[in-house]
Amino acid sequence: MEIWINPACSKCRGALKLLDEEGTDYTVRRYLEDVPSADEIRDVLTRLGLEPWDITRTQEAAAKELGLKDWPREAGARERWITALAEHPKLIQRPIITADDGTAVVARTDEAVRDALGRS
Known about the structure:
By secondary structure, the protein is of the alpha+beta class. It has 5 helices and 4 strands; from the N terminus they run βαβαααββα. It has a 4-stranded mixed β-sheet, sandwiched between helices. Strand 1 (2-5), helix 1 (10-21) and strand 2 form a beta-alpha-beta unit. The protein is globular, with a radius of gyration of 14 Å.
């Protein structure tokens, strides 16, 4: 299991704490330093069953600078969104846990973290 985190994020710290309390074996990926490629983002989206706009932090300064709120949320714009996430990783919602069963969850709540634990 891998968890994409920003150490400054309270939701990420909470998810790590719960994983530690459960004695879970996991790998931390500080995705702002170890930036996921477009292919990795595509893979995570498939595992999540979501579209790129579903995991985009639209209130970030970079999102406002890019004008993301006005971007179409449709199949034809998917690659544009993925490119934006790869070029501006701060836009990626966090934390994301990739479970051993091939799925993933956006683990912003204790329930979501426990859901990921149940999949491993």
